[in-house]
């Protein structure tokens, strides 16, 4: 059934005290962006909720609900049918809403905004309930009914709904600042990104690739994953960093066992430079403690030492199955498991160091031109602007003149998020 309005409820936002107005305004702004192009007439903010109305003579459909399912900050939302305050009209709409549902019991719960309205709640409950029973034999239950029909009567209309669809919860994107995600193409890093989106962060993305030493598959996957994530924040920048030449320098001048940690240390340095351009205050990776040999506590700490910005790891205490379950909910899992070659697979050492000592890493880096290698990678990067599907098509552009071909690619497999 088509519907004319949507009622949005929020939960965590309501606890924000004096700052609540700022959070509610951000949620309304995000709802407008999520529903861009749909026939919205007005969005109102009655106490404790947000009300979305369609243009006169227009309706919303399933696409509106699909978009709201990706808006962080919403605890639940309900598709609503608007009708007149005439009792017969209310009864007709009520039956239309229930006739195709499967239920053994129901209840009607109505309320009016003004005491001087001609219809009182008890009368509406009885009349509408009796009309439904005349059309279908069932039970009326005041508690734990299979279906509850809600009727809200305001000055000029009646609004009916039966569903409270669970939302994503969390906080509206944008209220807690900007972060830069090291997006690999595997299972972990998109989930880590989504966890930070749920806490109100707007994200930019950095992907390291080793083309032409490997195929473009990881780049293609990174684009697809960034597109999925941008359905939740509507737009974002994806920075494609050519990393193969830098890796080759590390392979040539550093001990084999330290390669992976050195890769990571260079990655956080480069990602931090991009974060500064994006006014991001921290980096995000999908690393989980001890998931693979390079993610021991010692190695994670030695990587952090090289970063000028904090490194956040939302999945640090997750096991792999938990991460996979989150990936399914996000919608990224099927993309992440597509086979590819990431930048680590070409230059992976046979026996990576699991507890690399900081002193050895610093000594190894003395043989490398840290600033020059980082700047060279930044000079050759490509930037892709990612937008939600209902926005204008994304455009690829080069940040600076480059010898690297334009990248518009997609994903990788299960690996340490965002790095070799």
Would you mind describing this structure in some detail?
It is a single chain. The chain has 420 residues and is an alpha/beta fold. It has helices spanning 20-34, 62-68, 87-98, 121-135, 188-198, 217-233, 244-253, 259-277, 297-306, 320-330, 333-336, 343-346, 358-365, 370-379, and strands spanning 5-9, 40-44, 49-54, 76-83, 105-112, 139-140, 147-153, 158-161, 165-166, 177-182, 201-209, 235-242, 283-284, 311-312, 382-387, 396-398. The strands form 2 sheets. Strands 1, 2, 3, 4, 5, 6, 7, 8 and 9 form a 9-stranded mixed beta sheet that branches. The protein is elongated, with a radius of gyration of 27 Å. The two termini are 50 Å apart. Mean pLDDT is 89; it is low at 394-420.
How is the topology of this model organized?
Blueprint lengths: L4 E5 L10 H15 L5 E5 L4 E6 L7 H7 L7 E8 L3 H12 L6 E8 L8 H15 L3 E2 L6 E7 L4 E4 L3 E2 L10 E6 L5 H11 L2 E9 L7 H17 L1 E8 L1 H10 L5 H19 L5 E2 L12 H10 L4 E2 L7 H11 L2 H4 L6 H4 L11 H8 L4 H10 L2 E6 L8 E3 L22
Parallel strand pairs: 5-6, 5-7, 10-11, 10-13, 11-12, 13-14
Antiparallel strand pairs: 1-3, 1-4, 2-3, 4-8, 4-9, 7-8, 12-15, 15-16
Helix pairs in contact: 3-4, 5-6, 5-10, 8-9, 8-14
